[in-house]
Hints:
Blueprint: E1 4-6, E2 22-26, H1 38-52, E3 57-62, H2 67-77, E4 82-88, H3 97-104, E5 108-112, H4 114-117, H5 124-133, E6 136-138, H6 145-162, E7 168-173, H7 177-183, E8 190-195, H8 203-212, H9 221-226, E9 228-231, H10 244-256, H11 267-279, E10 287-291, H12 310-318
Parallel strand pairs: 2-10, 3-4, 3-6, 4-5, 7-8, 7-10, 8-9
Antiparallel strand pairs: 1-2
Helix pairs in contact: 1-6, 2-3, 6-7, 7-8
This protein binds pyridoxal-5'-phosphate.
Amino acid sequence: MSLIHPVVIPSSFISKTNRHYTLAIYRGDLEHADAPGNKWHKLQHHLTQAKKRKAKVIATFGGPFSNHLHAFAKTLESTPFQAIAVVRGELQPTLTPTLIDAVASGVELWPSSRSDYRSGCSSAVVDDINRCYGDVYWIPEGGGGLLGAFGCRDWAGNISYLDSEYDAWAVSAGTGTTAAGLLSHEQTPHLHVFSALKGAEQQKLEIVELAHSLVADGSSIEQVSAKLSFYADCHEGGYAKQSKALMDFMADFAIANPEQALDPVYTSKSLFAICKAMQAGRWPHERTLFIHTGGLQGWRGYPPSNNPFSSYCKLSLDGEA
Ligand SMILES: *Cc1c(COP(=O)(O)O)cnc(C)c1O
């Protein structure tokens, strides 16, 4: 089965101009059944590094609905590493579905107060874990940093191998690590990046710098920057928030594309922005490939009635439970 699927632009978003657009999705959400999307790729070089260091324990950080923690748990399940997760906030008497899956995959959970969590690797909980376990390999929150981006550069190589016809790619951003990795690959065409966070205007430069540190073909920082379009105004209210307009878009999109489920935090916001720009005739590329970064497990943090893809998600998420 091909991982590149055509997108039907919802009828309410058909271009009012005479520009014609082709949009397709690279279904990263269908790769790696247990750990779909970008997070698996972000973990690969960390695992290699941990093996090289002969670490026995790998630890990371995440919120109670984190896609990163979920992928971390599923990816480490089949390795000999002991997995530890520092969870943001006190653990509730009832674990979230994400944390239930993590525990079932053998991850040891360490709760941390929100203020301690913010200190990252210099938090008290990290000290405690290091004291308990000795040599722990730490992966930053979200799997970010140079090694995370490196895994996404590899991913771009795989995607470009399948794609020979699109003049632009588009992807969602949180930390921007995935975007930087994709941008750094010489086969990646022009890249449109949509931040899911409020106030991310400064992130463009960070993405360019991280990508530039990974380019293998000697591109200058200006050349890397010219290949990137970055949007900080598509967050629809902020991280993990949904505007009414976004909810309406998802409902329309789900009717037109019942099998192309989008997640509520990242991919839906990016595609909403793309469809709006196409409708206005403002989108600069004729043939665009959107890279689906997964995250469908995140729907479990919302009432099922909010999820217009629920009949589709249910099938795939039941298998995971
Ligand atoms: C984490 C995540 C992103 C953002 O990835 P970054 O590398 O942090 O920019 C995008 N989409 C989904 C579905 C994610 O889970």
